[in-house]
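Run Spore-associated protein A through structure prediction, thanks.
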Amino acid sequence: MRLTRPIAALLAAVCSTVLFASPASAAEGISSSCSGTVVAQDTLWLPGGNQVGRVELWYSSANGGTNCVITHSYLGSRTDGIGAYLWIQDGRNIADASSSYDSYAGGAWISNASGLCVKYKGEVVLDGTVATGGRWGSWGNCG
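Sure, done. The structure for Spore-associated protein A is below.
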């Protein structure tokens, strides 16, 4: 079988793309829960001492190491919004926040993060006041 020059060039280009292509991009998304183990959590307090929720950081070794954050509100329908935020040290980040949420936000997850440090934050809003918890000022939980 004889290949014409243009077809041979195209075949060579396709083969080199397949052989030398970069790995698949890391997956991220929003799901109704996190899997794995809770590795950190923080209580969300309003000024004045009212406990209004908690934020949890989860880790699973699945899919190259998956970090996930979920924020729970204790206010039910009285909340004005809930947010869950996750930053990975390599520059990736994801957030799930809405004024229509009344019980939780997240799980906001990013995979292929084994060995990388994270920052995470949870927020619950009541009457315009934001209760915030987590660790968003420094990197940690390097898994």
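The domain at 26-136 is CATH 2.60.40 (Immunoglobulin-like).
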